[in-house]
Amino acid sequence: MDFKSYIRDVPDFPKKGIVFKDITPLLQDYKALKAASEHLVDGLLETKIDKVVGMESRGFLFGPMLAERLQAGFVPIRKPGKLPYKTLSEAYDLEYGTDTLEIHIDGIEKGEKVLIHDDVLATGGTAMAAGKLVEKLGGEIVQFSFLIELSFLNGREKIKSHPVNSLITY
Ligand code: AMP
């Protein structure tokens, strides 16, 4: 399947200079949606995975779907102040300034096998911070999984100590 034909480029969103990779055309199409989630779990069906961790907010779109396919639970990672229970935080660098991500302290148990999923791998800062949260809780990262990788931003370099899988590469 030509997955790229289901990704829409939106120039200057959310701000000037950014070409936003809009995955809603793919989500809208049942065959593309099914094929994408099948491909993302390909090669993992025989691997033990306890939790799929998804990053706010578009990591929540495929995250629970992948978790269900892998017979795993789903754990959200969110922006500060969004998770209601006790959290662990990790700050990471942006182009200008820093941002923070949070996870519930009981989201992952020590020794659990974890798949980390997001829609887009860009500079890798988000994925690296998510990885740190998982490892602080004692989770073992099995794979970083993305629908889209913007390879020209070299995000893979930041998380190369673990396997990285992406369905669509630009
Ligand atoms: P980064 O931390 O730079 O790897 O950025 C990854 C996060 O930003 C992901 O959660 C993406 O959803 C979002 N993101 C970054 N660049 C884009 C883009 N060009 N199109 C859509 N989402 C993006």
Descriptive overview:
The chain is an alpha/beta fold. The protein contains 5 helices and 9 strands, in the order E-E-H-H-E-H-E-E-E-E-H-E-H-E. It has helices at residues 24-28, 30-41, 59-69, 125-136, 155-158, and strands at 8-11, 19-22, 51-55, 73-77, 87-93, 98-104, 113-121, 140-149, 164-169. The strands form 3 sheets. Strands 4-3-7-8-9 form a 5-stranded parallel sheet, with helices on both faces. It has a two-stranded antiparallel sheet with strand order 1-2. A two-stranded antiparallel sheet has the order 5-6. The longest helix has 12 residues, at 30-41. The chain binds adenosine monophosphate (AMP). Adenosine monophosphate (AMP) binds at residues 18-21, 55, 58, 118-127, 155.
